[in-house]
Write a structure and sequence with these properties.
alpha+beta; two-stranded antiparallel sheet; 19% helix; 85 residues
């Protein structure tokens, strides 16, 4: 989950280091304040897929797992004042 205090670290520093791991296939960032999932998948380069709608479906081929955004955020209630940026 991305917290304000750790977001920069996970977006920059950690991802830079994780990309060096040859076996790493997907790097996932999950926002806690609104429904937003970013998935970086290894192909020739690192491709980004962004998911913001409850019905969005994503598939992790490396572990044969399919999820929707509503699966990730099941039973999570967001503050009304918080809107997707």
């Amino acid at each position: 989950m991305l917290f304000d205090s750790t977001e920069r670290k996970y977006r920059a520093e950690k991802f830079h280091n994780y990309r060096k791991i040859d076996s790493l296939q997907d790097y996932v960032l999950i926002a806690q304040d609104w429904q937003r999932v970013e998935i970086y998948s290894r192909s020739i380069a690192w491709d980004l897929a962004l998911f913001t709608q409850q019905q969005d479906v994503f598939h992790f081929q490396s572990v044969d797992l399919e999820l929707t955004l509503s699966d990730i955020y099941q039973d999570v209630e967001f503050e009304q004042s918080r809107v997707e940026k």
